[in-house]
Amino acid sequence: MEAKPPFDRNHRLSYYVDMLNPDSCHAMIDAVHQPHYEHFGEYFGNTFAGFFSDEPGFLNHTGSYLNRLGAIQISYPWHRELPSLIAQSSGLDEATVNLYLPALWEDLGEVTATVRMHYMDVITRLYSENFGYLLGNWCREHGVMYIGHVIEDSGAHMRMGYGSGHFFPRSGRTGYGRN
Questions:
Q1: Which residue from 10, 37, 130, 143 has the fewest beta carbons nearer than 10 Å?
Q2: Which pLDDT score is estimated for 179?
Q3: Cα separation of 30 and 132, whole Å?
């Protein structure tokens, strides 16, 4: 008899959608939503009202409510274009952003708040564009609603891990509903 390995949440999360990567989100739609449409398309908009997303998030770490910037030994959501996008958002040049990226983990003085705020703004926008809006748009194009919710308790609505960035800027771009 072979022993089962212990449950490893991080291993399981290594297969989760990369919310910052539009190719990853397109792959999820192609693997999950499109086959449903191909098989049940005649029922879309009548029997099938929509797709429900239950608490999607970055899930970049073990899923703690304490996943916030400045925490040591946490992997943050990352995309190769982040330094450039943070530079555009903050008005800093990209070389300066690269120099101060350790401010995501360590307090580097006055620049820390600027780097962290623009990092969160950028990943929130990418989450919205690459996941929420993309999936909502696909649903509208196929005559169904995109419904669901992100986790809101214990401040997760403004963090990573269980969260998906800043709640209010993100919620305006999710594409929920049919409009």
A1: 10
A2: 39
A3: 15
